[in-house]
Amino acid sequence: MTSATEEALAGLFPPGTAVAALVIADNRAPPHPAEAAAVASAIPRRQAEFAAGRAAARAALSALGHAPAAIPAGPQRQPLWPPGISGSIAHGAGVAVAAVRRGSPLGIDIEPDAALEPDLWPLICSPAETAALPVAHRGAYVRQVFSAKEAVFKAQYPVTGAMLGFDAVTVRLTEAGFVARFARNTGSFAAGHEVLGRLLRRQGLILTGVAL
After folding, report:
1. In this predicted model, what pLDDT tens digit does every residue of 16-73 receive, in sequence order?
2. 161, 112 contact by CB (below 8 A)
3. Which domains does the chain show, CATH number per domain?
4. Residues near 109 by Cβ (< 8 Å), separated by ≥ 6?
5. CB of 39 within 8 A of CB of 112?
6. Is this structure's pTM higher than 0.85?
7. Which residue intervals define the domain 4'-phosphopantetheinyl transferase N-terminal in the entry (predicted)?
């Protein structure tokens, strides 16, 4: 499963990006001592997700030709990458994924390819966003919008330092992925600025990626 997931992930990003995927339950690598404090008081499931995410990140760094390194968490729980490295980590549906490169920021997300309940739709989508989605299987499309926004939020954070709500960008799904439009000025991103992202559905997963 992970090799197929990594192949799919690689297609989300430009050349020069290294990716890795790891089944969380299969991870045996503990966090680096510099990372462990971030989840010292977390429940075991969260500790396992964190450890697998860092293990996937180190695998991606290795694929990029970078030496293994600690990836501690910042004040907003964001990964703190080695100098010159941009990256993103996500976990969902029992899988941890990571993408890294030398260059501009990245955002990655993974979700189960399953519908979200209607009571969650207004938390994620504006009425206009919801109305633009197909009526049939709308909950599944809302999940895709959710994943797209998660990837965008991770990509923009190193640039703006802003923690965004779901109303900060609007997402329009396309055949190749999605277009995210900033709803208001956010750091160096002016209202109306558009970010293109990729989205794939594979093996019961939604995989999304953004490269700024």
Report:
1. 999 999 999 999 998 888 888 889 889 999 999 999 999 999 999 999 999 989 999 9
2. no
3. 2-103 (3.90.470.20), 116-197 (no CATH)
4. 90, 92, 147, 148, 150, 151, 154, 206, 207, 208, 209
5. no
6. yes
7. 35-100
